[in-house]
Amino acid sequence: MQCNPASNASSNLTTPLVEQRVLYAELLEVYKYYIGFGIFAVITNIVCMLVVLSKRHMREKYGTFGVLSFGYLLNCLGILLAGLLRTHYISGNVYNSLNSFECFGRPWPYLFIVGGHLPAFALLCMGVERLIAVNKPLIYRTYITARARIIANIVCVLLSVISLLVGALAEDADEQPRRKKLRKTPTRHDPIRATLTNDD
To answer: Which tens digit of pLDDT belongs to each residue from 35-91?
Structure first.
């Protein structure tokens, strides 16, 4: 996962900064669409959430639609932030090579992960609810209450957050061997420290 679309440009130190800006000028045009569509999608999802939350009856019966819109809202915010910040990085010639774990220092991976999983869990709950309503109408009318829907929505949010934590921990575990290797690599400026590190 690359946070910076021009993450490899920093390795080419002989290329003038002006040429790098010209090289990635097409990406600036692409990220204008990120920003435009991101703003449009954020506004539409906010409207959907306000409609669902406007009345108590709709909150109780269609609360999952509100959770679904909230998940899409997070995803769209990620698109918007990615477009804005990547445009800033390219315009300012800030080309840093980042690994996957360092990518978590940017704001949009969190929004993409939670915003990607939350709608999926919400759609799963909606599908299960409709399946029960069609095949087991008596069970549906007895057990699928407003309280059950609220619990299901909370579970969807918790699962999305847990998936984010699992992803971060897994990426950190993959990154630890590389860190150990870097610590054991002798450096030109401090050979004594490198020797002590190798002895450990």
So the answer is: 999 999 999 999 999 998 888 888 888 889 999 999 999 999 999 998 888 888 877
Percentages helix, strand, coil for the chain (3-state, rounded to 5) are 80, 0, 20
Range of the domain at 127: 9-184
Q: For residue 117, what is the domain's CATH number?
A: 1.20.1070.10
20-22-28 Cα angle (round to 5): 100
In a domain, 67, yes or no: yes
Identify whether the C-beta of residue 77 lies closer than 8 Å to the C-beta of residue 38.
yes
78 vs 40: CA distance, rounded Å: 13
Please check whether residue 4 lies inside any domain of the structure.
no
pTM of the model: 0.70
Q: What is the domain count for the chain?
A: 1
Give residue-wise pLDDT tens across range 77-128.
999 998 888 888 877 777 565 666 677 777 788 888 899 999 999 999 999 9
Q: How far apart are CA 133 and CA 130, in angstroms?
A: 5
Cβ–Cβ under 8 Å, residues 39 and 80: yes
Query: Which residue matches tokens 């190798």?
Result: 198
Q: How far apart are CA 114 and CA 78, in angstroms?
A: 10
Q: Is residue 152 within 8 Å of residue 64, measured between CB atoms? A: yes
